[in-house]
Amino acid sequence: MKPATFDYYRPDSVVEALQLLEEYGDEGKLLAGGQSFIPILNMRMSEPESLIDINHLKELDYIKEEDGYLKIGAVTRQSKLEKSPLVKKLVPILVEATSFIGHIQTRNRGTVGGSVVHADPSAELPLTLLTLDAKVTIKSMDEEREANLRDFFITYLTTEIMPSELLTEIQIPLQHMSNGYAFEEFSRRHGDFALVAVACLLDVDEVGTVTSGRLAVGGIDAVPVLAEDAMDLLIGKKLSESLLQTVGEKVVEDAEPDDDLHASKEYRLNLAKVLIKRAIQKAYGRAVKRGDSL
Hints:
InterPro entries: CO_DH_flav_C, CO_DH_flav_C_dom_sf, Diverse_Substr_Oxidored, FAD-bd_PCMH, FAD-bd_PCMH-like_sf, FAD-bd_PCMH_sub1, FAD-bd_PCMH_sub2, Mopterin_DH_FAD-bd. Keywords: FAD, Flavoprotein, Oxidoreductase. Its EC number is 1.2.7.4, 1.3.99.8. This is Carbon-monoxide dehydrogenase medium subunit/2-furoyl-CoA dehydrogenase FAD binding subunit. It is an enzyme of class 1 (oxidoreductase). By secondary structure, this protein is α+β, with helices and mostly antiparallel strands. The protein folds into 3 domains: 47 residues, Uridine Diphospho-n-acetylenolpyruvylglucosamine Reductase, domain 2, CATH 3.30.43.10; 116 residues, 2-Layer Sandwich (Uridine Diphospho-n-acetylenolpyruvylglucosamine Reductase, domain 3); 114 residues, 2-Layer Sandwich (Enolase-like, domain 1). The protein is 36% helix and 24% strand. The chain has 12 helices and 14 strands. It has a 5-stranded antiparallel sheet. Strands 11-12-13-14 form a 4-stranded antiparallel sheet. Strand 12 and strand 13 form a beta hairpin. The longest helix has 29 residues. The N and C termini lie far apart (57 Å). The mean pLDDT is 95.
């Protein structure tokens, strides 16, 4: 199929883009990378009156360290994130996670902000940014506001952003970046959407006891799941098989993945427990190794 007829706009500034969003409301849709939205248009699952192309807004294309945050402009390409020496130095889990996104052609077009706003529950960037306790900057003609990602995702493919708003920046706090990190996912074929994905951050003390940790899981619910209660079970302890099993069980106990043609609910939950164990073990190993090198 081909998309329904629409008016096409290519604003030269964020202000102009916001003016168009204000004018068209629900009938105006933003186009960034288009990796998800173009198929939706072609299948006529969305028939907007106007398409507002923000691909060329250079003011939203940047990666920089500022005021204790790694700041990423919303139209920054995923491949730029993956190849950035600054990101690799400051937030290596983000490089590791980005490498799992589709293929290089996908990452060359896909944008960081587009992935966050699309909010696929198994997508690599929303999941990892949630683990990193990131926040986003959102603008409209009337105001600029910030939202924590833990509050940003509402349900499947739905966020709290309003039709007249534009996500402009992602901010990752750097003050307490963990030494240990890991990203794990499983898909049926390389480049496919993940059935389940896991991101983990971990710190240990000089004797290998876990002192802090964050973990999020994608693909087991309508939004990425931040497993705070489960990770609390690790604090003050060294890893063991029984502890890892308990953590995995705790993470999935309230999860409700859908059965679909790719995997059953039971398969996804079991897979999640396997990947949670792998991610925690890998993050733990890296944390111990980096602690020894300090």
